[in-house]
């Protein structure tokens, strides 16, 4: 209290049951949990049918799991009075909807606590159920339903979305059945500098049709407000964007652009290695020994690494690898240039150089050139729209990987999608406003 004095202990207030219309009348401490006897504060003597006053006809006890106190499960035994109307014969029980939903096994406070445990503290469902003192299936069913209704079904969740990110994600590592989903990310806060990206939705499958169907289900005014869609090199996402969002600009993510060039460099290195030595790379082979150095940005090379590359490219044996490495480094330099206009010019140079005139022996560069020629507009669009990379999308993919590990895998795709949205859907500020 402000004056430093203490009030009389009140278990009802301490357990926040007064917010649910309950009063604690007793407690029993058991080895593994705390049991509280409760009654409903509000009387409910009036008949729902005829409005006449009813007569008490005994009571029943309803058991509910409440939010734990210090991770010690708290179980409520609520005595609910029964009434009978002498006029029409209708029988009813006291209304306790403020404390729990009909037939629920968890109080509304327990559901709120469990949502915060999942979304804010990133606990597993097993640990949450253990803290509540209920079975895993009881906690999972109740908490996911509450999260879907309170957070995921919010009609304003899709408001103010102008920049999308789309990528594929492996949700389970099984030999049979569908194991891929398409994740759709809201990148608007990242571009605006107001916050992190958030997961908008997860769609089963990884195809053009999966993304196209999701876009088609969105209202036309919402689609018209979309300005940019960041994606990887998968042409299905590009085609779906073109067909459903004709006014939006597709941006190919820098990570995937550089990965295309890096893959071309690796394939060239392996081919030259095989042609020269007749076997795959071994520890003492120069090309294999320099495989990581080749992928290091030129501005990050140490003196020892520079000497290694100088020795590698000394002579004509590795000239094809050197040519591919030069294209790779030029593309990295374009993205790292702080001047966007100059970076765009640097990226345009390798794209133009690979359009034609590439020697037939450089098959990896010819393949890379065809891809860059087809997606040149998407690659160069990044330099005019900062904050539209798929980096935040990959970060959310990493969080979903962690979620799957915490849960020791998922078997049900619907549960996985709901848990993913709760994990990365940006709901932390909703449950804890001070986390904004």
Fold topology:
Layout: H1 11-14, E1 22-30, E2 33-40, E3 55-69, E4 72-84, E5 91-93, H2 108-119, H3 125-132, H4 136-152, E6 163-170, E7 180-186, H5 188-192, E8 198-204, H6 208-217, H7 220-224, E9 228-231, H8 235-244, E10 249-252, H9 254-277, H10 286-289, H11 291-294, H12 303-312, H13 319-336, H14 340-353, H15 363-374, H16 376-381, H17 391-406, H18 413-424, H19 428-431
Parallel strand pairs: 2-4, 6-9, 9-10
Antiparallel strand pairs: 1-2, 3-4, 4-5, 6-7, 7-8
Please count the beta strands (DSSP E, at least 2 residues each). Answer: 10
Query: What is the radius of gyration computed over CA atoms, rounded to a whole number of angstroms?
Result: 31 Å
Number of domains: 3
List low-pLDDT spans. Answer: none
Gap from first CA to last CA: 29 Å
SSE string, helix = H, strand = E? HEEEEEHHHEEHEHHEHEHHHHHHHHHHH
Q: Beta-strand percentage?
A: 15-25%
How much helical structure, as a percent, in the residues? Answer: 40-55%
Sheet/helix structural class: alpha/beta
Number of helical regions: 19
Principal-axes shape call: elongated
| Main sheet properties | 5 strands, mixed
Query: How confident is the prediction overall: mean pLDDT?
Result: 91
Features:
single chain; elongated; 10 strands; 436 residues; 18% strand; 3 domains; alpha/beta; 5-stranded mixed beta sheet; Nucleotidyltransferase, domain 5
């Amino acid at each position: 209290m402000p004056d430093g004095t203490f009030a009389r202990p009140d278990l009802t207030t301490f357990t926040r049951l007064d917010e649910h219309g309950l009063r604690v009348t007793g407690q029993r401490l058991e080895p593994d949990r705390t049991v509280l006897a409760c009654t409903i504060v509000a009387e409910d003597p009036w008949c729902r049918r005829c409005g006449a006053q009813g007569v008490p006809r005994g009571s029943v006890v309803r058991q509910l799991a409440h939010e734990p106190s210090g991770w010690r499960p708290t179980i409520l035994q609520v005595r609910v009075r029964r009434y009978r109307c002498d006029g029409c014969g209708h029988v009813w029980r006291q209304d306790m909807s403020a404390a729990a939903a009909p037939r629920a096994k968890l109080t509304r406070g327990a559901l709120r606590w469990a949502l915060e445990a999942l979304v804010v503290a990133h606990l597993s469902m097993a640990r949450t159920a253990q803290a509540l003192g209920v079975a895993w299936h009881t906690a999972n069913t109740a908490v996911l339903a509450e999260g879907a209704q309170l957070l995921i079904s919010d009609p304003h969740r899709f408001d103010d979305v102008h920049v999308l990110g789309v990528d594929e994600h492996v949700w389970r590592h099984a030999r049979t059945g569908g194991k891929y989903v398409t994740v759709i990310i809201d990148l608007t806060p990242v571009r605006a500098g107001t916050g992190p990206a958030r997961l908008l939705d997860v769609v089963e499958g990884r195809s053009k049709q999966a993304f196209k169907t999701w876009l088609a289900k969105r209202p036309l005014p919402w689609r018209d407000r979309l300005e940019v869609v960041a994606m990887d090199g998968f042409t299905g996402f590009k085609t779906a964007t073109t067909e459903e969002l004709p006014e939006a600009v597709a941006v190919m993510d820098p990570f995937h652009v550089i990965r295309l060039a890096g893959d071309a460099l690796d394939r060239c290195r392996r081919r030259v290695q095989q042609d020269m030595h007749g076997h795959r790379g071994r520890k003492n082979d120069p090309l294999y020994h320099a495989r990581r150095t080749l992928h290091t940005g030129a501005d990050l090379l140490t003196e020892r690494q520079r000497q290694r590359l100088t020795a590698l490219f000394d002579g004509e044996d590795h000239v094809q690898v050197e040519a591919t490495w030069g294209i790779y480094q030029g593309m990295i330099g374009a993205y790292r240039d702080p001047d966007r206009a100059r970076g765009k010019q640097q990226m345009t140079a390798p794209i133009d150089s690979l359009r034609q005139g590439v020697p037939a022996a450089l098959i990896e560069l010819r393949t890379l050139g065809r891809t860059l020629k087809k997606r040149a507009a998407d690659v160069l669009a990044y330099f005019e729209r900062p904050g539209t990379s798929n980096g935040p999308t990959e970060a959310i993919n990493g969080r979903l990987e962690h979620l799957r590990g915490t849960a020791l895998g998922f078997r049900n795709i619907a549960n996985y999608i709901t848990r993913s949205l709760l994990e990365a859907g940006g709901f932390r500020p909703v449950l804890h406003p001070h986390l904004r």
